[in-house]
Amino acid sequence: MKRTYLGEFEEIVLLTVILLEGNAYGVAITHEIIEQTGRSVRLNQVHAALHRLEEKGMVYSKMGESTAERGGRRKRLFTITAYGEQTLLDIQAVRSQFLQLLPRPLKPLTSL
Amino acid sequence: MKKPAQASKPQPPRLADKLLEWFCAPHLLEELQGDLHEEFYYQLERVGEKRARLRYVWDVLGFIRPFAMKCTSSTYSSSPLLHVSMFQSYLTIALRTLWRSKGYTSLNIAGLSVAFCICTFLFLTVHFQLSFDSFHQGKDRIFQTYFFKNEPEGANWSDNMPMPLTPALKASYPEVQGATRVLYSGHSSISYKGKRVDKNVVLTDPDFLRLFSFPMLKGHPENALRDLSSIIISEKLAGVIFGKEDPIGKVLQLGSEGKQKGYMVSGVIADPPENSTLRYDAVIRIENAGNYLSTQNQWDAFFMQTYIKLAPGVDKAAFENKLKPFADQYLAEEFSRLKNKGARPDKAGDLFAIRLVNLSDVHFGPTGNKASLYQLVCLAFVILLIACFNFTNLSMARCFTRAREVGVRKTLGARKGQLFVQIWGEAILLCLAGFIAGLLLTYVLTPGFNTFFGAHLTLQYMWQPGVILLLLTLFVGVALIAGGYPALFMSKFNPVEVLKGKVSLKRPGILRNSLIVMQFAMSALLACCTVIALQQEQYLRSMPTGFEKEQVISIPVGNKADGRQVLARLRNRLAGDPTVISITGSDVNLGYGKDGVSSRSAFSFTYNGREVSTDWLLVDYNYLKTLSIPLLAGREFNPAIPTDSVNRVIITQSMADMLGEGEPVGKIIRDDNNPEAKGNEVIGVIADFHLYGATSKLHPITMHMSHHEPINYIFVRITPQSLQGAISRLQGAWKQAAPGTEFLGSFVDENVDAMYEDQKRFSHLLTLASGIAVLLSCAGLFAIALLVIEQRTKEIGIRKVLGANVSSIILVLSKEFVKLVLISLSIAIPVAWWLMQEWLANFPYQIAISGWVFAGVGAAALLVALLTISVHSIKAALANPVKALRQE
């Protein structure tokens, strides 16, 4: 089977990019991840991940309009590419395939 | 009530922002900074300003990661700084450009090689001088003893020791691990089986071999000098006498015909290196000295050197202190002699002391005067600096001609670093060529340098780590500084402007002009100093000495014969010689003779309440006649009056002035503090004369004829017609008058000239340095003028078309350079004036620095500069303007 080069954090960032369709840039993505997962994520981690994703061709970016709150600086807006979407689907497929093959269903841990 | 100032919107920490701007890749900066600022304001609302600021800093620091940094994420292609194929290309291009501009290249290489060559010579000289005696093991613990005497005429140092000092030192002080006497007996004849050579035989103690590290090639250092009749010969001498034969055990005959003594060779020792103060061809025990028996317990005959080795950890100053009671005990006579002469203790309380000088400083004398070495280093640096300026200037001037290449390279994607490496590499290549040429030049010129300066440099000295390191540092320094700046400058060109051709119009080159000014200032400075030094030397030589120095021959008697006897025999022998006018003797030589000895005897006392200090000169009959010193009053010593030889003196005019006597003849000179002594009656007054040359101040002289003091020098005046062959005739008479001694006669005028050897060396050196400096500066100006005029070809063409004539164009072209030369002169002249004023202050008789020197040097500098430029400017002015204007 073909291996997809996508780390766990990258996967989350990639998913967030889809979630924020059209308004996915550094700060927004960071805040969204914090909100959704409750992890403490730092800006530089997100930027590094976005940088890697762009190098892998899973997102592409363009500069947005300048905004006043950023001192007139433009945002870099990220959009997922078809390859990115396909990668997510592949991962999904692999996982569900494994889940189906499991001899017994996974049991969630119930707290006492 | 004051209104609180309206709080401006909080800003992210500036320092962190600056940091981000510095390290962040330019194309990422906008979005990153935007995100960071947005986050900052978000956090400001959430957690307050203080924590938001902290967070901001933390976030910025988090971005110090490769993806955000400049180096890896350039918008340009990321080729490595130095690639092998690129390097090859640079080399090819460099060789091509250098070859294309042969004039520039050869000028550069010539200038650099001359400077490197001079520097190598001067540094080698300094290194050689400083390396003297440094090859001995444990040299820090080896010392030479010397006597410090605070004589009335000034502090005095002497390394001549009495015979019994060394054994006494060894016996009295356990910390003296070894001590040896060294006595040079001059050249002795050594013969073996009919072969005869005159060689330098050193008389010494067995400790000589333990103290010094001259390697023994044959024999053992512990027992080679055990026997009184052992002799150790140098490797060279062994080769001369024995060839390939084994010398050990062979018997050599030493001494002159009839007085020979046999010595058995017990060892062969390596030749002393050039940088050894101790020189020898053979070594024997000191007990073999002719006067050993009479002097072995004599503490007042000073004629040999003493070296000692102290135990580890013994402090030199502390040991010198411990030597004080020793000096009191054994050398009490010296103390009383000095006291009788009126000497007083110096500031440290020493009237007379035995002191030590480190072996490594023995070469420079007890006071360790190394000033002349620092002069050499300074000169070397000035010359190197001028050469560096030339190099920088030429490279800068060529910047403009190569600006297009840089522009094209930049548009094709060359980065600053690459351009820098390329251009700098070319500079290094040039520098290397100059360096190698300089070393070759040094190799070729070494014999000439050695004869000119009386040096003993061999190229072996270059193969020492210290020298190699120094030369390499020099090379790297020149390449780095002189070549680095133009490379940096060129690599910063803006490609757009360069390709438009704008660069050549911008800034006429403040750097270039200031470098030219400094070059010329240094050259003019050296030239002024040279002229003044030469004038002073000439002035000293031409100063009237007060006696007739021509046609007088001075003969040192040496310590093997009795001067009085020799003088009497010589008088008898030459009595009938019509070419000899008169003969006399003295204890002080006039000038610097072939024996290389200079001595002085002075004495001071109080006379009628006046402090009097005078030279105390022993003379013989006919001294005044022989030297043609005019008698002002009274009479000369007369052989017909036998009492003249006791307590009668002749004084010079300045002595009479010092005594305060208008009519001194017939007066008795007596020390106020010693009224019982029989005073000296003044029988004559003579005009002042310079006993010690014009480098020291004229001093009052008192002449006496006491038979107790030895005559050391004999003076013979001959007729002017008999100068030819006079020396050889005298030599013949000398052989019979003083058999077995060496004849070292020389003309007094030559001796007096030899006193100014130091000044001569100094002015020689300055002449050479300033000559090279002027030459280098002119070479630099020549090239700069060429490049500047090339750039102005069109301007000249337009001027000519508009009706300018040749002379006005030459004027326009020369004006700028003349201005520069004038500025440099205005810097150089005051500095030269000040420096030479300081230098002249060392002399009691000095020239007044005349303004004409500066005017002359200034005019010469201007003329030389104009001539240098004129080669190009005239050519440019005469050129056909059509050609200049058609140039595309």
UniProtKB/TrEMBL annotation, chain A:
Top-level taxon of origin: Bacteria
Protein name: Helix-turn-helix transcriptional regulator
Taxonomic lineage from the root: Bacteria, Pseudomonadati, Bacteroidota, Cytophagia, Cytophagales
Domain Transcription regulator PadR N-terminal: 18-88
SUPFAM superfamilies linked to this entry: Winged helix' DNA-binding domain
InterPro entries named among the record's database cross-references: Tscrpt_reg_PadR_N (IPR005149), WH-like_DNA-bd_sf (IPR036388), WH_DNA-bd_sf (IPR036390)
UniProtKB/TrEMBL annotation, chain B:
Listed transmembrane segments: 109-130, 373-394, 419-446, 466-489, 510-534, 765-789, 817-835, 847-869
Membrane topology: Multi-pass membrane protein
One Pfam family recorded for the sequence: FtsX
Keywords of this entry: Cell membrane, Membrane, Transmembrane, Transmembrane helix
Subcellular location: Cell membrane
InterPro entries from the UniProt entry: ABC3_permease_C, MacB_PCD, Macrolide_Exporter_MacB, Permease_put_prefix
Domain MacB-like periplasmic core positions: 105-324, 595-724
Lineage top rank: taxon: Bacteria
The ABC3 transporter permease C-terminal domain, residue ranges: 378-495, 768-877
Protein name: Permease prefix domain 2-containing transporter
Organism this protein belongs to: Rhodocytophaga aerolata
